[in-house]
């Protein structure tokens, strides 16, 4: 096989990393400065954009160490039996690439994952070596996110956390049955055990730093995970329950959802079609309800269809919940507590904060609420204001068509 240069490896391994949703990229038109015209390019292989908690957009070099793997997970394009072009970076090449991109101001950090080569321990050693070299040999102070391998020695995973800002351990599928069927070489016990060890290390080092400022940091940006949606028979209720369990037991910062995408020469046990991308979007919205709107997992799951366990695709989970529990509404915006205001469709956390602050000084009218939201039409059936009471709207049997987003025909030549 012909020896690949670094640019060819980058093209292969950056493309292979796109299936990891833990670091989503944004799209733009292709532009290049080849030929001496202009400066810069939008076609840099492996550069993606992630967002910090404060909203800053961070450019990351997102690559795999290798797309070779000794495992044969049915849903993975890089599985052992897959007929794809293989490539592998050395630890030194990843370090040099990261520094080169960083010095050119293309990136602010590194996102590194890998297929498993040789053994889990050997692969984890290579990943840790990249982070160690960047931090210790080159005093690299940018962001580093490492995907760890739960089968690896716990000490190696611990070392990864000492060098990385964030670590992630993928649970892969929402159910134990789905994991056994589609990834028989992976074990949910080992995956969750590694998550528990990481959580313990994060808490221990946080406590140590309260006493000793010289104590080392361990994954200060926390840990995250990813679940594939639509590859098995798991319902949205199953996925919401699993996510809530992971947040509660392991203190995760994020659970990412990735809609299953059919792969070349796929196994016969996989579905022939990918699920609607809107399903992935609805799961992120339900995740948001649990994390920022104080919904319990049971409340979010109750928004799903009782027969199928699936969230509706045409309306968001918050509106679906409100329509299902009409007896909780309308809510008086001048008197209702924060937890009930957060359940009003169309009111976000900032709008609720503004309502709580403003009503201390005067009673709010419908126009006041309209200034805080995109669509007052969606809100009107669910609130009572100083000059508004939804007398006829509250009891209408056909309320859903009135508040659901309107389907618009897009223009061919807009």
From TrEMBL:
Sorted UniProt keywords: Iron, Iron-sulfur, Metal-binding, S-adenosyl-L-methionine
Superkingdom of source: Bacteria
CDD domains, per database record: Radical_SAM (cd01335)
Record keyword Iron present: yes
Needed cofactors: [4Fe-4S] cluster
Protein name as catalogued: DNA modification/repair radical SAM protein
């Amino acid at each position: 096989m012909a020896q690949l240069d670094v640019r060819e490896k980058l093209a292969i391994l950056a493309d292979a990393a796109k299936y990891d949703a833990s670091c989503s990229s944004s799209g733009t038109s292709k532009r290049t400065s080849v030929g001496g015209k202009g400066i810069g390019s939008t076609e840099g292989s492996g550069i993606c954009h992630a967002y910090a908690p404060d909203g800053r957009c961070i450019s990351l070099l997102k690559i795999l160490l290798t797309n070779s793997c000794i495992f044969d997970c049915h849903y993975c394009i890089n599985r052992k039996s897959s007929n794809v072009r293989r490539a592998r970076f050395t630890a030194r090449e990843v370090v040099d690439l990261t520094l080169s991109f960083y010095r050119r101001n293309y990136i602010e950090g590194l996102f590194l994952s890998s297929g498993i080569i040789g053994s889990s321990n050997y692969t984890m050693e290579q990943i840790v070596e990249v982070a160690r070299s960047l931090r210790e040999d080159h005093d690299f102070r940018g962001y580093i996110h490492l995907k760890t391998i739960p089968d690896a020695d716990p000490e190696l995973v611990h070392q990864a956390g000492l060098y990385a800002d964030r670590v992630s351990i993928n649970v892969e599928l929402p159910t134990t049955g789905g994991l056994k069927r589609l990834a028989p070489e992976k074990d949910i016990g080992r995956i969750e055990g590694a998550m528990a060890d990481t959580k313990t290390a994060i808490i221990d080092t946080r406590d140590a730093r309260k006493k000793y400022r010289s104590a080392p940091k361990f994954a200060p940006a926390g840990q995250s995970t990813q679940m594939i949606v639509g590859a098995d028979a798991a319902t949205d209720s199953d996925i919401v329950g699993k996510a809530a369990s992971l947040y509660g037991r392991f203190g995760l910062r994020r659970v990412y959802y990735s809609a299953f995408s059919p792969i070349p020469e796929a196994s016969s046990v996989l579905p022939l079609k990918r699920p609607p991308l809107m399903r992935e979007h609805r799961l992120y919205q339900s995740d948001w309800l649990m994390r920022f709107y104080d919904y319990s997992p049971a409340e979010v799951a109750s928004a799903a269809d009782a027969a199928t366990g699936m969230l509706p695709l045409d309306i968001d989970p918050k509106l679906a919940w409100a329509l299902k529990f009409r007896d909780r509404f309308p809510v008086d915006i001048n008197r209702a507590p924060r937890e009930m205001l957060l359940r009003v469709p169309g009111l976000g956390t900032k709008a609720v904060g503004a309502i709580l602050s403003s009503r201390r000084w005067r009673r709010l009218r419908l126009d006041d609420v309209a200034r805080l939201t995109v669509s007052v039409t969606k809100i009107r059936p669910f609130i009572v204001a100083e000059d508004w009471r939804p007398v006829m709207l509250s009891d209408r049997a056909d309320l859903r068509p009135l508040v659901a987003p309107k389907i618009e025909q897009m223009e061919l030549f807009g």
